[in-house]
Amino acid sequence: YQGDRLEVKRLTLEAGQQLALHWSPHQMVLVCQVGDGQLLTPDASHPYHPGDVFILTPRLLHQLVAETDSVWLQSLQALWPDRFLGDVGRA
After folding, report:
1. d(Cα 31, Cα 43) in Å, to the nearest integer?
2. Beta strand pairing status for 28-34 and 62-66?
3. How far apart are CA 56 and CA 27, in angstroms?
4. How far apart are CA 2 and CA 86, in angstroms?
5. Within 10 Å of residue 28's Cβ, how many Cβ atoms?
6. Phi and psi at residue 86, to the nearest 5°
7. How many other β-carbons are positioned within 10 Å of the β-carbon of residue 75?
8. Which of 19, 48, 79, 84 is most exposed, with minimal Cβ within 10 Å?
9. What pLDDT, on the 0 to 100 scale, is given for residue 45?
10. R_g of the chain, CA atoms, integer Å
11. 73 near 10, Cβ under 8 Å?
12. HSE toward the beta carbon, residue 22, CA cutoff 13 A
C-alpha cells in the first residue's frame, strides 16, 4: 500500500536469508508476523520473534537475518515528523 503519508510493504525472507545492511531516510516501523532471527544494527543485535515491533529512526543502518522463514510488515512513515529518539525502539 502506498498513500500520501504512509507506505506499507510485506517482506518475506527464507530461512538463512539476509537483507543487506541498509538505511532509510525516513522513520520506519517493522512488525514481525512470522519467524525468528536477528535485527542487526552497528551497535547491537536484537532477536526477533512473531509479534515483535521495532521502531527505527531515520538513517539507522540495519540488517535482517532470518533463522527461520520470516514475514514482516514494514511501515515507512515518509511524511510524518520524526517522533522517536534513539537507534532502535521496541514498541
Report:
1. 21
2. unpaired
3. 6
4. 26
5. 20
6. 95, 175
7. 18
8. 79
9. 96
10. 12
11. yes
12. 9
**pLDDT digit string (tens) for 15-37?**
999 999 999 888 889 999 999 99
Q: Give the global pTM.
A: 0.78
Q: Which three cell numbers stand for residue 1?
A: 500500500
* Three state DSSP letters for the chain: CECCCCEEEEEEECCCCEEEEECCCCCEEEEEEECCEEEEECCEEEEECCCCEEEECCCCCEEEEECCCEEEEEEECCCCCCCCCCCEEEC
Find, among 64, 65, 66, the residue nearest to 74 by Cα.
Answer: 64
Please state, as a whole number, how many other Cβ atoms lie within 10 Å of the Cβ of residue 64.
Answer: 23
Nearest Cα neighbor of 64 from 25, 13, 27, 28 is 13
Q: How far is CA 50 from CA 14, 76, 88, in A?
A: 15, 20, 17
Residue with cell 517493522: 30
Cell triple for 51: 509479534
